[in-house]
Amino acid sequence: MNPLALTIGDPAGIGGELTLKAWLALRRTGPIFLALDDPARLERLADNLGLTVPIQQVADPAEAAEIFGTALAVLPVRLAATPVPGKPNPANAQAIVASIAQATKLALIGAAAGVVTNPINKAALYQAGFAYPGHTEFLAALTGATGQQIMMLASPMLRVVPVTVHASLRDSIAMLTTDRIVAASRTTAAALGRDFGIAAPRLAIAGLNPHAGEQGALGTEETTLIQPAIDRLRAEGIEVSGPWPPDTMFTAAARGRYDVAICMYHDQALIPLKTLDMDHGVNVTLGLPIVRTSPDHGTAFDIAGKRIADPTSLVAAIELAAKLAQRRSA
Question: Per the confidence metrics, is the pTM higher than 0.85?
Answer without folding.
Answer: yes
